[in-house]
Amino acid sequence: MWEETGDSVTLLCLTASSGVPLYCRSRGGSVKQQLPFSVIGSLNGVHMFGSNLDVLLTAACTENTRVVWKVFHNSITLIVLSSDEGASDFSLGRLLENVFSAMVLVLGLEELVNARNIERLKKDLKACYRLIDSFLEPGKCSADLTHYVECAVVPSRAILQVPHRFLTFQLVPGLEVVLLCGPSPSLQYVADELVKQFWQPLLDLLKQTARASPRCLPPSTSLAPGILGLLLINQEQRKSLFTVQPHGTQAEESEMPLKSRLCALRSFYALAISLYFPSEKSEGSTVPLQEEFQAGFSHHPLHCYIISATHKAYAIHGRQHQLFLLLKPDVPTFALRSLATSTLQALTAEDSAL
Amino acid sequence: MEKVVPAPSFESPREPPAEDCDACGDSNSTGNGGGSSPASVSWSSDDFEPEWLESVQKNGELFYLELSEDEEEAILQDSSVDVPVVNHVRFCENEPEVIHEISRKHRQNERKLEKLTKMLKNKNLISKQSLKKKATGKRDVRASGPASILKHHSSHKVGVVVQKQYKDVYIYINPTRQSNAETGEQLKLLESLIGIAHQSPWRKAEKHRHSTESRNAEEEKLVVHGLIPGSSAIRSGEILIGDVLVAVNDVEVNSENIERVLSCIPSPMQVKLTFEPSIFELEGTSQQRCKPPQSSMNNLLKLLWKDHDNDPQFSIRSIPHIIMYLSLRLDSDTSKDEQEILYQYPISEASQKMKSVRGIFLTLCDILENVTGAHIISSSMFLCGKLIHVAYWKESDKLLVIGLPAESVPLSQLRNMTADVVRMLTFMYGSLDSAFCQVENISRMDHFFCLFFHQALQPAGLHSRISPGSHHYDACSALFLYNFPGVHWLSLPQEIKVEIDTALSDLEAGDFAELSEDFYDMRRLYTILGSCLFYKGYLISNHLPKEDLTDIALYSRHYCLLPLAAEQRISQLVIWREVFPQHHLQSSKNSCDGYREPEARYFLLIIGLKHFMLSVLLEAGGCSSKAIGKPGPDSIYVDQVKATILQLEGIDLSIDEILESPSAPLVSSVDWFLPSSRDKLESLAPLPLLSKWQNPSHSVISPASKKMLFGDSTLRTRFTSPLQGSGGSSNDGDNPEGGRGNVNLHAAQSKSPGGFDKSSSLFKITKKKNILPGPFNLGSLKKNLSVKETELYNVMKLTSGPENTLFHYISLETMHGIFITPTHTEVAQLGGTIHPQLIKNFHRCCLSIRSLFQKTMMRETKKTAGTRRSLESKKPNSGLHQVREHGVLFECSPDKWTDQKKPTPPVMYWVIGRLFLDPKPREFYVCFHDSVTEVAVELAFKLSFGLAL
Predict the structure, then answer these.
(1) Are B516 and B632 in the same domain?
(2) What is the pLDDT of residues B446-459, one digit of tens each?
(3) Cβ atoms A96, A103 nearer than 8 A
(4) Would you tell me which residues 207-266 of chain B have a C-beta closer than 8 angstroms to some C-beta of chain A?
(5) What is the DSSP secondary structure assignment for residue A192, as one 8-state letter?
(6) Residues A190, A305 contacting (CB under 8 angstroms)
(7) Does the pLDDT of residue A205 top 50, yes or no?
(8) Is residue A130 a part of any domain in this protein?
(9) Which ranges carry the FUZ/MON1/HPS1 third Longin domain (chain A) (predicted)?
């Protein structure tokens, strides 16, 4: 149906028990029309058929498309079809988790799991379309993939049973503060009093940061010129640093388009995590939902790198930090390791943030 | 299970064709009519007919495997006594057979055991029935009908089936050996063959006199009076003194006819002896049978997976795995259940579940193709607590589905394996349809997939008899190498190579008298397209196009012929079958460049003698005469191929020598890099290892010294290795002493491929270190250079460090369909405790690296084929589709450590794969110690120049 289109991602959401479609969001693809109901039905049906027989279908893959199924809390089934070449079972799995978390964020878990009125649920879910659509877009950051804080969504499906308010305030252009709070302080009070009270003294710093925002690095640190992008993760503090413009915004496009950098770094991360470095178990599920390739190794992978026609990439898996570097292709291969090690040292040495 | 005579005893869920029953009926009726025909005459071995002749199946196929004598012994000792392995492994099938007379031609597809059984039955039908009466309720049909061993389940695992007062013992008998040993006097066969001493009452005093006088004995019970030491009987451990032998292969025997019955055994085989146990024997061990019937008990399998304790078939039964061939075209009237399943294997509880969800496979295949416009490749599912990957292969309106657990076979590997299965089946049967949809192929398919799953799920079970080191090597590499698109190549010195090539060319020319057109004034039967010669499982010469070689290699690997040949378990192997090499068949369809392949039929002939295995691809049609019907192997061709091998037999010593000696790039064991063993090594050879190790980042060798030492020789190697054929030996020629001189030292000394072998110069280098700044700085200095220049720069500094840090490597020449890697002996010599782990890791890592390379290659081929739209290039590339090199650094800290006080310094090593696309696709995988300077990493890849064919 979408043979002639480029990347496209389609997300289906259905109730797990009855298979009623809740919504269908898609991105890309020249064909605007949605999947016919019969296809949605059979995609869900094939999964339901399996689960009735204690067989849990998780993924399928054709020459150009990947499909991933996931059921959350025995009540919501999410299905994603992606024809993005860079997509992997890992990244699509994360995508579905994010989408569900977004739904939880907006509606609350209770509402989702025990929805009585399907029609109302459908209507309510419209509120999270924008958020969901943002996940379907090709990633601009890494947090959706890494689940380390840098993002709008709580990575672990926090129990949002009671209604909370999700507030954002723009402090300076390009910089927003996000609050998650209970019912007590009124919006007026927070906006007028609290925000001022806490952020006013830091205004200069904020402006400075906002200017350097795509870089994500303090102006004092300078990285090796060969570096095109980096992702640094502090596993203990669940924080990450991600940038594909380590040298500022000016005139770097010549080397490699930003879009490609994003894509390359993200897929390199997905590769390293799904093949070599152990990712921490997501709480709750004891069975691995993806192939655990690294389980077959008798020794521990510490570093890995790839050299492609357009770029090089290097990853270090340390005890506390993980560093993923995207480098220019003309950086000599033998220099990759020392470059990565020194970068990691420079970024983590005295720096308190990571 | 308990059927009545004369129904055959196929326990397979598939019902055999009805003709089989007729066959049994026939055999019985002829037996009645013929009485005791002088059958033994036709059984006496005919010297002029090749021994494999009677094994040829109706469709002309032949799989004749005669094991070496040692192997026979081993089978007896190692495995449970009843393993239904005779030394002729053959693929039996459900085919009708008519036995009017006992002549080979009419009973071709029978196993010898059955033949003997039948024949004996025909002879003594009446006594057989009397035996039946005695043993009422004792036997299942297996005892009465001619049992197909292949279909025959292994219910008698323990070797003894005690039922009422009888026990069956399966022993192996080799009449030829006996006759060789005792040339003079004719022995009593009962003693010489089986090893049971029985003395007629009046002969008890003269124990060692053997004569034919036993004939005079009247209907006397055959009481076991003694067992001959070293005989089959005593080794079985089941025959006790005092037992009474009542039947041989269900033919009742007594002291009068025993010699006659035993004399009918024509050749080495297994026989069933039925004993009436002595009264002292405990009856506790009865009722051991009646395990669930297993499909396709398999001889070759048994032979290869000699599991030490239990039935190999049994241990993988609990693992969910399945192969199904499904029809996508469903008839509207679903009168028959499961009609869409055209073929399925295995039939076990675990796979039953996967069978029950075949609806998923069919639906997915259908809807995903509708939605995405592309065939489905794979899917994953959870089942029985395990993640199962399922690979699909769609061909017209049929769907092949193979499911295996992810923990055993990663998805990327499963896809490759599935592609290989399809390729192999197409090679063997022409198409998947003809492989799966013909009734007579079902048992062959069972056998095929039985082997397939064993290799996938129990790679360690195979090769259990090789020496421990290489065994492990095999086991851990098996999965990776199973579908490596190449054959293990062994480079030989020029003179040996010439000798082999000449011999093969002579054969291929087909110039021998019997084959020349003039001799008989008729067209020759076959044209020899090419041949390839294996020695101990290594390819040593190939005169076939890559495609054909790959086909043949896949076939040989799948049927485990290479490991068999490696251990000299083969005394003689003759394989003949029609094949469908797509390479020839497809190009015959589309004639492009003026030349077109003839419309011909192709046959594969594989002859194995000891360690040698010569595969020949024959063409019938074209310039040779057309093949009519289903021709069997032509003995002239078989003999000629055999003669070629025999002609080459002299070179095996020199090849062995090469196998023993380390090959061009020396490898070392990771264990040598552990401190404890370092102490030992230092006594052998003073190693600059320690300093280097502690200070790895600075150990850059000055380019000058390097150039002096290696530059010329490496370059020479590079240039003297031409792209084709003969260059392989040049490397050996370059550094003969460097290669072999220090083998026994086992020191982790430096052996660069370029070959510098003076340890004195070695130390000079180490002193010179730290002259250059660290590689990082070096890198930034050079960073202005373009990639190409940088690479070139590195070529010049190509070297290893002072000590040899190369642990393992694989070089895959995709163009030639071969790969080069250290030989088994080499790996075994390295020994060590961690090294096997390292190699296992290496192979697993190669899997992931290779899956990336495959993506790149797919993209490349798409690009060159021009099927991709221009739109493709504009898309931001995801980064993982043009990977040329991929490396992983591993850390290993040994578990147990002699010195407990100090923490173990971990050993770090790299596994790196590199893909070369120009001038021809090549893949190279290396594993080396972390202490190698980053510059020297390049070395590893340059090695491939020296390794070129």
Answers:
(1) yes
(2) 888 888 888 888 76
(3) no
(4) none
(5) I
(6) no
(7) yes
(8) yes
(9) 226-350
What is the Cα–Cα distance from B761 to B710, expressed in whole angstroms? 12
- Residues B76 and B512: their CA atoms lie apart, in Å, by 42
Nearest-Cα distance to chain A for B789, in Å, is 10
Contact at CB, B880 and A308, closer than 8 angstroms: yes
Q: In this structure, is residue B471 part of a structural domain?
A: no
Residue B719 backbone phi and psi in degrees, to 5:
-80, -30
Q: Taking Cα atoms as reference points, which of B274, B251, B285 lies closest to residue B157?
A: B285
Same-domain check for residues B728 and B838: yes
pLDDT band at B152 (very low <50, low <70, confident <90, very high): very low
Give the total number of structural domains in chain B: 4
Best CA proximity match to B97, nearest among B156, B198, B26, B193:
B26
Give the residue ranges of DSSP H helices in B752-910. Answer: 759-767, 775-781, 787-796, 824-830, 835-865, 871-874
Question: B459-492 b/e with 16+ CB inside 10 Å = b?
Answer: bebbbbebeebbbbbbbbbbbbbbbbbbbbbbbb
Q: Do A180 and A132 share a structural domain?
A: no
Q: What is the Cα B312 distance to its own chain's centre?
A: 16
Q: Do A291 and B389 touch (CB under 8 A)?
A: yes
The answer on B435 and B543 residing in a single domain is: no
Which CATH number covers residue B359?
Answer: 3.30.450
Q: Among partner residues B372, B774, B783, which is closest to A65 by beta-carbon distance?
A: B372
Give the range of the structural domain holding residue B359, as residue numbers without chain letter: 319-457
pTM of the complete model: 0.69
- What is the C-alpha to C-alpha distance for residues A223 and B171, in angstroms, rounded to an integer? 76
B496 at the A interface (CB within 8 A)? no
Q: Is A334 on the interface with B (CB under 8 A)?
A: yes
On whether both B623 and B682 belong to a single domain, the answer is: no
- Contact between chains at B878 and A267 (C-beta distance less than 8 A): yes
- Chain A residue numbers with beta carbons less than 8 Å from the beta carbon of B881 are 85, 308
Please give, rounded to a whole number of angstroms, the shortest distance from the CA of A179 to a CA of chain B.
35
Please judge whether B382 and A56 are an interchain contact, meaning their C-beta atoms are less than 8 angstroms apart.
Answer: yes
Cβ contact B563:B551 at 8 Å: no
Question: Which residues are CB-contacts of B188 (< 8 A; sequence separation ≥ 6)?
Answer: B210, B214, B259
DSSP reduced 3-state for A226: coil
Burial class (CB in 10 A: 0-12, 13-18, 19+), B815: middle
Strands B222-223 and B244-248: antiparallel
Closest residue in A to B847 (Cα–Cα): A293
CA gap B26, B101 in Å, rounded: 11
Is residue A87 within 8 A of residue A10, CB to CB? The reply is no
Average pLDDT over residues B665-690: 53
ipTM over the 0.90 cut-off: no
- List the 764-783 stretch of B: residues with Cβ below 8 A of A: 774-776, 778-780, 782-783
Residue B305 belongs to some domain of the structure = no
- In the DSSP assignment, the letter for residue B242 is T
Query: Do the Cβ atoms of A311 and B879 come within 8 Å?
Result: yes
Q: Is B359 on the interface with A (CB under 8 A)?
A: yes
Token pair, residue B641, equals 């191929």
Give the whole-angstrom CA distance, residue B108 versus residue B259.
26
Per-residue pLDDT tens over the stretch B529-569: 899 999 888 888 899 888 899 899 889 888 888 877 777 66
Same domain for B399 and B435 = yes
Contact B845, B889 (CB under 8 A): no
* Contact criterion met (CB below 8 Å) for B714 and B754: yes
- Residue A73: closest CA among A159, A197, A182, A146: A159
Tell me, yes or no, whether B641 and B709 share the same domain.
no
> Which positions ≥6 away from A319 have C-beta within 8 Å?
none
Residues near B246 by beta carbon (within 8 Å), at least 6 away in sequence:
B131, B134, B166, B222, B252, B253, B274, B275, B276
